[in-house]
Amino acid sequence: MAGGDGGTGVKALCWEGVGRVAVRTVPDPRIDNARDAIVKVTASSVCGSDLHLIDGYVPGMREGDILGHEFVGEVVEIGPAVRTLAVGDRVVVASTIGCGGCWFCDTDQWSLCDNTNPNAALSERLWGQAPAAVFGSSPLTGGFAGSHAEYVRVPFADYGVYRLPPNLPDDAAVYASDAAPTGWMAAEMCRIGEGDVVAVWGAGGVGQLAARAALVLGAERVIVIDRYSDRLDAARENLGVATIDYQRADVQEVLEDMTAGRGPDACIEAVGMEADNDGGLGLYDLATGRTGQSERPVAVREAILACRKGGTVAMVGVFAGLADRFPLGALMHKGLTLRSGQPHSQRYLPLVLDRMARGDIWTDYLTTHSMPLSDGPFGYELFKYKIDGCLRVVFHPQA
Amino acid sequence: MGRPGPVSTELGRRATVGVVAGATAGVVGYLAARAAVRAAGGGARRTGAVGAGGDGHRTYRRAVTIYRAPAEVYAFCRDQPNLAESIGNVVRVDEIDDRRSCWVVAGPGRSEVEFPVEIVNDDPQVLLDWRVTDAPVPHEGSVSFTQAPGGRGTEVRLVVTIHPGTAGLSGPLLAADRAERLVYDALRRVKQVLEAGEVVRVEGQSSGRDAVPREVITQYLATGVVAWAVTGGTTVTGGPR
User: Fold this and answer.
1) CATH number for the domain that contains residue A194
2) Are the C-beta atoms of residues A70 and A45 closer than 8 Å to each other?
3) Fewer Cβ atoms within 10 Å of its own Cβ: the N or the C terminal residue of chain A?
4) Is residue B4 assigned to a domain?
């Protein structure tokens, strides 16, 4: 049972250092603020952005930090100021934490919340202003304990916790936390119009959901780019999209051919800072990564080069620091719009739940591996190295 | 989009002492206590101050935008229980008259520092100026409230000038970066209480740093090529993505 110092401890998947995670028994999470809730986690998904944390690319991680930000569970305790939830509610929780009272939350830009990041001064030094907190992340984005645990504390529980329809199973609903809102937001940022062709870099959970959202929002054709054949197969079979294996074909050439020279009207980057290193610039990134550049912005470079003149590049892969050799010339002379951001999960979560219920978005095929939390390190190994056709691993802490 | 419950808008009359004043004074008092405890310490580590005068005074300026109307922000800052609670470190505030109060703030360990705060200028909804003279770290401060453009709330600008002090403590012993940080933290906390209704905490939350070592299952992610027999002993290889 969660709550208080009298607890017996709960199992949680913790960061141990670069490349290392472990399941530990940690103190029970408790209500620290009046608007907190404690959620008993029944399913918690891995996410590509966890790999950036695990692999040490995001500054500030401390040994013992609990990972995980995409989860469903049951409300078991609420703080005295929580108004909208009740113990026993089966819920999905937004990955980004919003206070509900600042200008950003009030204008539906929840991932930019002014008040949920207790380490704002730290992120301001790096980024100028501080973004909202995210569960299971570095102190730069709040440093809140994550959901790969039997129980998790959810701050500002009135904003970001949503009741689940009973017919939506955990392993499908879990993606409403983060991957589906991120994918939907990426597609929305593309301002898709009639006849638009949308290219998506990355066939992971977010890329798949972005591709589906682009179709729902009216894209004429969606093309998904990756190098993992099982992920590309999954995209073709489940979404009916075209795919490009960039290890077998020149992406720029193929996209140019598919669009008769126009280029995709919009490009979605769903890869992030640890893109693969093929090619000369990739080697450059690897070399400079040892001298200050924290990113390997391979996919976003490609997206900018491929994008139609006047088109939009939506970057939802996670980056943390500085990038080098960035195609500013192409961005400028082609009049591109570059849009980005962590998902405003609270804005999109009710929408994606509704779309899931109506059968417009389906996520069941994304969970290729489902396992107890105690197998967490193994799960991340499968996920990181894409072993056994791994697309997403969902942990079940109560199993 | 919903707002959090109203954050004490019925403050008005009962407050007689400027609390931003007191709160910042509290911060500075805390610094003074730190300085006193570390009295043998060396010179200033860094001057992060905006201005440093010939007499050794330092001026700190920080501003935040608070998504509430100037009247509400001003009223909040005029209300000492609100402010003392949101700032932290303040043990109690004793009112002397409508301009003067005595602040007791917590120092390091169990120490407490007591000093008088005097409001020298009170322009409702516009400005609050205060002065602290009889203290280990004498200082003066000013907080102004301006309507932000486009319905973004109130621009709150805080200026604090710290003087060397009779005991000579504040000059060399106040770390400028620390003072600046505390002044900014005080502002941010006021913003958080007004907008979000509480200052959210992460200190003391559950983490693996307090792990109970009885059930530790560790596994290391390989850093290079991984060989893992997943299906029927097949060896799978892959590089880091």
Assistant:
1) 3.40.50.720
2) yes
3) C
4) no
Q: Is residue B236 part of a domain?
A: no
Of B200, B207, B218, the CB nearest to A66: B207
Of B184, B185, B198, the CB nearest to A34: B198
Domain match, A197 and A326 both: yes
Between chains, do B214 and A14 touch, taking CB under 8 Å as contact?
Answer: no
ipTM, two decimals: 0.90
By the CB < 8 Å criterion, does B177 face chain A?
no
The partner residues of A226 in beta bridges, in order of sequence, read A245
Which residues pair with residue B220 across a beta bridge? A20
Chain segment A310-334, per-residue pLDDT in tens: 999 999 999 888 888 889 999 999 9
The total of structural domains in chain B comes to 1
Domain span at residue A273? 182-340
A106 with B67: CB under 8 angstroms?
yes
Q: Is B102 exposed, middle or buried (0-12, 13-18, 19+ CB in 10 A)?
A: middle
Q: Out of B197, B208, B210, whose CB is closest to A35?
A: B197
Q: Within a domain: residue A54?
A: yes
Is residue B206 within 8 Å of A363, Cβ to Cβ?
A: no
Pair B158, B143: CB distance under 8 Å: yes
Nearest residue to B164 via CA among B128, B129, B121, B133: B133
Q: Which 3-state string (H, E, C) describes A315-344?
A: ECCCCCCCCCCCCHHHHHHCCCEEEECCCC
State the CB neighbour count (10 A cutoff) for residue A283: 11
Cβ of A14 within 8 Å of Cβ of B2? The answer is: no
Contact list in B for residue A144 (CB cut-off 8 A) is 202, 205
User: Mean of the pLDDT values across residues A183-193?
Assistant: 97
Mean pLDDT by 10 residues, chain B (241 residues): 36 35 49 41 36 74 96 87 72 84 81 86 93 83 96 95 64 62 88 93 85 43 34 32 28
User: Which pLDDT belongs to residue A289?
Assistant: 67
- A to B CB pairs, distance under 8 Å: 193
